[in-house]
Design goal:
8 helices, 5-stranded mixed β-sheet, alpha/beta, about 30% strand
Length: about 240
């Protein structure tokens, strides 16, 4: 099958085209450009370079969240628009799954960390079993020290990746845990290539939906809504 994949969940924006066995084309930018300006041109480029007509894709894989609220909405709107126009199903791929799958050859725990601001990270922890992601810790928004405590309790070696690993690297190193390591730069950030391959796997497992049904998954409320609730509770 053939899949078009989109990831705009973080600072990195990425689009890719893949079939069951190959990444046919990929375009990734990590220079803080606005996704609303870059994502559609990137999609257009990978489709043209792959020489696969849009109507020939079986599905569109899109990162469903968590991540940047604005980035997720841009990616979701782009995927929904394409899905509705082409009458193609959407395959929602969790951002943390996509990140973790970048390190699918790692033999220990893979822990993606996405900076969620306000001293929190979006995170989860995985093993790779028979080429598939298996949750050790489910996805959530939590404090960096809380997830480090959970990982320490496993006694296993852990590979960190994602922009949160950069932001909280000093805190992680303070643990002095020799089981901890960091992914190299070429696999440490989001990539639509891994989203595309997971999209194929999830599609075959029946984990897809119509474009009209698709909604981003934020894991926590938008900042404006949280601040409003805090004001009502007299916290700020």
């Amino acid at each position: 099958m053939k899949v078009l994949a989109i990831d705009s969940s973080g600072i990195t924006a990425s689009a890719a085209v893949a079939d069951d066995n190959h990444i046919i084309a990929e375009f990734t930018v990590n220079n803080r450009q606005t996704h609303s300006q870059t994502l559609l041109p990137m999609v257009d480029m990978v489709v043209k370079m792959s020489e696969i007509p849009l109507e020939s894709f079986d599905a569109i894989a899109v990162v469903s969240g968590p991540g940047s609220f604005t980035g997720l909405r841009i990616g979701s709107a782009t995927a929904k628009g394409l899905g509705l126009a082409l009458d193609k199903p959407l395959v929602p791929v969790p951002a943390l799954d996509g990140l973790a799958y970048r390190a699918a050859c790692y033999s220990g725990i893979i822990c993606p960390l996405m900076d969620a601001r306000r001293n929190q990270v979006y995170t989860a922890a995985y093993h790779i079993t028979d080429g598939k992601l298996v949750n050790v810790i489910g996805q959530k928004a939590t404090g960096i020290k809380d997830i480090l405590s959970e990982l320490k309790a496993t006694g296993e070696k852990v590979l960190f990746l994602g922009d949160g690993a950069d932001v909280y690297k000093d805190i992680i190193l303070e643990e002095g845990n020799k089981n901890y390591s960091f992914a190299p730069a070429h696999i440490s950030k989001q990539s639509a290539a891994s989203v595309a391959m997971l999209g194929i796997i999830y599609y075959k497992e029946g984990r897809y939906e119509s474009a009209a049904e698709h909604r981003p998954v934020y894991l926590r409320k938008p900042q404006a809504e949280r601040e409003r609730e805090e004001r009502m509770q007299g916290k700020i």
